[in-house]
Amino acid sequence: MVDTLTTAERSKRMSLVRNKDTRPEVIVRRLIFKQGYRYRLHRRDLPGNPDLVFPSKSKVIFVHGCFWHRHKSSRCKLARLPKSRLNFWLPKLEKNRLRDRTIQTKLRKMGWRVFVIWECQLQDTAKLQTRISSFLEREKK
Fold first, then answer.
1. Which site among 65, 94, 113, 121 is 20 to 30 Å from 79 CA-CA?
2. Domain annotation covers residue 12
3. Tally of domains within the chain
4. pLDDT tens-digit map of 51-60
5. Integer Cα distance of 141 and 7 in angstroms
6. 87 to 9, 11, 92, 95, 139: CA distances (angstroms)
7. How confident is the model at residue 4 (pLDDT cuts 50, 70, 90)?
8. What is the pLDDT, as a whole number, of residue 81?
9. What pLDDT score was predicted for residue 140?
10. For residues 20 and 81, which has the higher predicted lDDT (pLDDT)?
11. Mean pLDDT, range 35-63, rounded to an integer
12. Secondary structure element (H or E) that encloses residue 100, with its range
């Protein structure tokens, strides 16, 4: 299937994709702040620059977009593949997923606990708040 946008239009659209302070990330930050937790943002000294870092607890949270990070849940409708240029998108998105796994492994080896929140999980904020609290309050084993 041929791309329906010109090269200039596609470039403009892709330049709008953010990697920090995304809508899902801001929603999660507000939920966590309301619960009374304090955190640091995007620590560059940690692999993958985690979205939220809780240094005293040695815990990090990543907020992943279902499309960009290839959410594997069968119920997730946001992780669909593009209809055009699959030979470009499949390797790119798979590389993102593999990089995420490598980063999480590195963080765990450094003694950090990792929690991933997927964009589609923001639809049920009550359940998400419970999961976040459970993660942050759980003692390190």
1. 113
2. no
3. 1
4. 999 999 999 9
5. 51
6. 20, 18, 9, 13, 44
7. confident
8. 84
9. 64
10. 81
11. 95
12. helix 86-109
Instruction: Tell me the C-alpha distance between 79 and 120, whole Å.
Output: 9
pTM of the model: 0.84
Per-residue pLDDT, averaged over 57-75, amounts to 91
Task: Give a yes or no: residue 34 inside a domain.
Answer: yes
Q: Taking the CB of residue 33, how many other CB atoms lie within 10 A of it?
A: 11
Angle at 68 (CA atoms; ends 42, 98), nearest 5 degrees:
80
- Structural domain of residue 57, as residue ranges? 24-137
The answer to whether residue 7 sits within a structural domain is no
**Nearest Cα residue to 52 out of 65, 40, 64:** 40
Q: 114 — phi, psi (to 5°)?
A: -120, 135
122 contacts: CB under 8 Å, gap ≥ 6: 24, 27, 28, 128
Domain for residue 3, yes or no? Answer: no
Q: 88 with 34: CB under 8 angstroms? A: no
With contact defined as beta carbons under 8 Å apart, do 31 and 129 qualify? yes
3-state secondary structure of 115: strand
